[in-house]
Amino acid sequence: MTDTVVLSSSSASSPSGIKRRRVEGPTYHASYPVEPPAYRRFATKTPDAVVHRYSITPKSHTPSVRETHTQPPSRARTPSDQDASIVLVGTKGSGLSSFAVIAATALRYRLIDTESWLVEHYRMKRSEYIKTRGLSAYRKVSAKALEDILHQHGTRCVLVCGPEALEPHCQALIRTFASTHPVVMINRDLPVIREYLGLPDTSEVLQILGQGRQLCRRISNHEFYNLPESEAASPLSAELCRNLRGRGELHNPPQLLQNVKQDFLHFLSLLARTPPRTGSLLGPAPPSERDFSTSLLLRLEDSADTDFSLVDLNRGTDAVELVVPSRPSQQTPCQKDRISRTLQMIRRHSEAPVLYHVECQDPGLLSPKQMYLDLLYHGLRLIPDFITIDLDCTDRQIRDLTSSATRTQIIGHRFYSMSRSSVWSDPALHKDFDRAVTLGCHVVRFVCQAKSASEDRACALFQAAIASRSKTPLIAYTTGIQSRSSMVLNPCLTPVRQPELPSSDPSLSLLTFKQLMRAKFSSFIYQPLHFHIFGASIDYSLSPMMHNAAFEALAMDHNYSIKQSHDLRDFNTLVDDSFGGSSISLPFKSEILAQLDSTSEAAKAIQAVNTLLPLRAVPDGDKATADPLCRSHKNRAGPVVGLYGENTDWTAIYTCVSRYLSPANTIQSSSSALIVGAGGMARASVYALLQMGVRNIVLWNRTHAKAIRVAEHFTHLYNEPHSRLFNQASTDQGCRIEVVETLNSPWPEGLAQPTIVVCTIPAHQIGDAPPPEFQIPQQWFQSRTGGVIIEVDKLSYKSAWTPLLQQAHDRAHRGWICVEPLEVLIEQGRAQFEIFTGYPAPQRVMKDGIMEKYLAMHAVQDDN
């Protein structure tokens, strides 16, 4: 027998360490197989217990790899209905039960398992039914049960279909359901599955597992790759603790399913069912809608043996383009799995959108075998942000793809070789562009192999002609070492290469991002600007080191400096034609609001700004006038006609809480948070938590009346008629923000113990008063599943170790995770950099810059 964990409405734990939430309606008692050793080791499975699970389809019904070309996976258009149920399918050992719990909790859907349905209605498990009544009888009853489940639970449910989904009669049911619902295949490394199941390490076993995977792919229309938890970078706070605090131990132990949870939540957001990834909260518009966006080219063959933890994919580029070969010699049965794994690895290590491109430079590949289209639709299953389709495809083939891609932008692509002459001046090129737009392409890309430098000038004229008559974004450039200026002038998704990963196709002769940026400054497309941090006591600030390191890494000729003053009027001396923006520090965050021409909704709600952006005069009709955060008029000098205020403190808190909140503490309607303090950072914390969906917040501050004012302010904002500031759902019951008077007060009655604690009081000396040694009172520190503690005061990095950090360290074994104060500063600065420049911040470089400055500061202090 296999080991199982019983799931019911009263179950408090699961194999993944995730608490099962009580859901509305009946919850079926499920016998979930325990998770693999990578999640939690309970017991070793015996081969006899699981072998027949993968032999449920007779050999005559098992498709070969060749047959999968004639029987493609479902290509159905996923419905836009936000309430449509989601079906999860996968082989035994892929992690279905854990992902089902993550999805059901995040979406607030009911969780229905097909095996539990059988247990509920027939009082026996699958193996018992087969043993008692035979395999044929089981196939009939499982098909009938699945049909009933799909019919009765078509909305707001997560349906888990295990091995029974691979039964011949059930496959047709799920494929039909996929025409109106998302059916997600959970994929995983076969050796990991084999080890979990306790099967022998033989080629025959792997072949059987592979056949099960192929069947899952046939009946699903989306695919998620379950990467090993270990294949991720170490948490930033843990790295900061080791390097900055002089502590060798890891004060934040690895959390069960932490990276896997973040991966899957991002995948769900791509299905348009949860908020977008936190890294783009204040980010600019999509790359296809911005001037001079770039994409990092990454070829599938180059990434085969790449250690992604050693490659910096977040280095200023706006997207990552995964290039997949479609040459027959490179078509292998495992290629699709390799594509799925690589794309998911890119997502884990980069927050940039993914562009999926299948090479098709040989028209012979568009044959009846449709190898090219087969790879194309496989990419669509992974929900990339962009996908290309070769314009040599027929009108019907292009329309089919554009109608199927409800969540992916289509780029109509065509490559012109040297054999053609005067490509850019050929009227047929305009017809190709119009055809792509008519067939539903969101972007059009033309690439020409240049024969001379004159091709660049012809390309620029063609771009201007298209821009004068169409709003559809155009990517147009030439390749070749003698013709590169078209790449510098190309307005959208210019490809660049990693210095560490040069393109394997020398004919492309791509520039690196730094080469491209230097060319923009050298040709006066961009001009050097000056940025500052302005405040009363900022001589200690680490921000200049962080921003200047980022400018240098991206080859931007900007500079960032400290401007310290006790008089706000001195700020006006900084604003000139080359002013790029400013960080605002205490005590001016609220005072400066009166001098601004416009502010973001967040800054209005928080009543404070920490980021200023100049508004420049632009030509009439320029799209930059509509959005102050648009990149069109950034990195360019000129007369300043106004100032725009933003607040990035809240985004830093939002990001850090989301990053470290464990699956066991996924935010629900009952989740509670504690905020210590009532100043500007406390208001930013309240705003961030409300945006995350936390509806129960408790405040404590030494000045009780000040905390009450903060609570009243946000309660009024939240309950304001027709307010959508915090993305309230129609069923939202409102928020509860309470204030406790003293540290000896009991935790408010009726509220769950806090799983999020944000401390905003300073950890440094104030005047003659010693630094407050705050610790969480024990009666407020009783969460059984731990939680996240954030110390957000940016002055606290002057203290080597605070009592609160020590308290979190002592409770690490109980699930408490502490976020280093410097990580909050890095995230706040990262958001500022992206607002200032319009380019994604080089996170690794900014982190290294802060650590270098911090260690130098403390070396001086130690010498003194």
TrEMBL record:
Region annotated Disordered, chain positions: 1-29, 55-83
Domain SDH C-terminal: start-end pairs: 822-847
Residue ranges of domain Quinate/shikimate 5-dehydrogenase/glutamyl-tRNA reductase in the record: 669-716
CDD domains: NAD_bind_Shikimate_DH
Record-annotated Shikimate dehydrogenase substrate binding N-terminal domain positions: 533-612
GO BP term (any one): chorismate biosynthetic process
Biased composition (Polar residues): 70-83
SUPFAM superfamilies (UniProt xref): Aminoacid dehydrogenase-like, N-terminal domain (SSF53223), NAD(P)-binding Rossmann-fold domains (SSF51735), P-loop containing nucleoside triphosphate hydrolases (SSF52540)
Gene Ontology MF: a single term: 3-phosphoshikimate 1-carboxyvinyltransferase activity
Family matches, as Pfam families: DHquinase_I, SDH_C, Shikimate_DH, Shikimate_dh_N, SKI
Coiled coil segments of this chain: none
Recorded family membership: In the 2nd section; belongs to the type-I 3-dehydroquinase family. In the N-terminal section; belongs to the shikimate kinase family.
Protein's name according to its UniProt entry: Shikimate dehydrogenase substrate binding domain-containing protein
Organism (species): Aureobasidium namibiae CBS 147.97
